[in-house]
Amino acid sequence: MKKNIILWVSLLACISTLAQKTPDTEALKLKLNESGSRFFQVTFLNQAWFRFNENNPGTSINGSPRTQSFDIGLRRTRMQLYGQITDRTFMYFQFGQNNFNAQYNATGNRKIAPFFHDAIGEYLVSSGNQLKIGGGLSIISGISRFSQPSIGTIMTMDVPVFAQTTVDQIDQFSRKLSIYARGQIGHWDYRYILSDPFPITSNGQTPPAISSNYANFSQKGHSLQQQGYLIYQFFEHENHTTPYMTGTHLGAKKIVNLAIGGAYQPNAMWQKSAQGDTLYQDMKHFAVESFVDIPLQNHAALSAYLGYFNTNYGTNYLRYNGSMNPATGTSLNASNSIAGQGPVYGNSYPMFGTGSVVYTQIGYLLPSSHAELSNRFMPYVSATFAQYDRLGNNSTTTFNAGLNYFIQGHKSKLSLDFQNRPSYQVNQGDIRAGDRLNSLTLQFQVFI
Asked: Could you tell me the keywords of this UniProt record (predicted)?
């Protein structure tokens, strides 16, 4: 691990030297009227990861056992096209791909990757952002600000993905076909969403068989999903151009918020009874959170978040997930691993489940003699404390610590992240905590 840290520091210095030569660029924005109130804009983002990972027990890559791995990948590559095309009509599209590394679609066609993430039209019913009605394919959702994050402005290297509760199960990378209302009235910011989820059978994976021990997403029937999110903003308002929520403003705004959110879908889950009957269960999620993002003296800034999540996917639901998983298989089987959904190999861990989660993060933009966001540093730490029913007394605690180097704000930045995550051992159905495992990732983000 020590050798890998030295490697990362050297690579960080090399990329930093090259990246400082990146010229300042203006947004690709076209005015549609004299004042610029009507406009059309294009943005591009790329997040390249260079990662060393301690793999879960039993992990294999292309059939070869591997306890450690190094991979290079594109965590996110996106293009946004949006604009206020009339005084009251807004449109937004996003196209791109995610989690593209050497193991992407390893047994299929690696060229099948990009897709439309978002495609919405929105109408401003009342001036001053009091009420907007929109619809289409969108990430807009309830529960949390991290359920609909602006990935170009993330403070930590990655978002807490567990807050995107149904990601790639009954949605398209957290996007659903929805109709929604959102707006800002005084100190309040609200959104209500009615979504038409995709069937679990169309997510490109083989759905798990119905079980008598735990619930899974139902493969029969169909129901709409309702979501809501309400924020009280003590000082300045959050950005309201798109439904996405900013990760950190880097001192540009004084934001102190309290929020509550939830999601409900009847009969979304199913399970077998002891008598063999099919039982349907509702999916219900709830969260309460606080967010602070404020400027300090000497051009410093503080960003902090604390949230409590109660997630109910039905009896004993549990799903493993690993961001841009570097591995492809495992030597473990149903007798010595946790059965259910998601790969247990590579960098995955129990990320989604019926239970409760506390998530917190804090970052500090270091003081500077200048206000510009060039050649600035921002260290951060984050922690996830989860208690899932399926794991009994075993908690799922994950820690991250990292450093952002802003070459030019969020437009060009380097992020070095260290993660410590849990693993589990299973013996005749008895689940116990295993060794804790680490990963070290360097990200280079470019965003215009």
From this structure: Signal
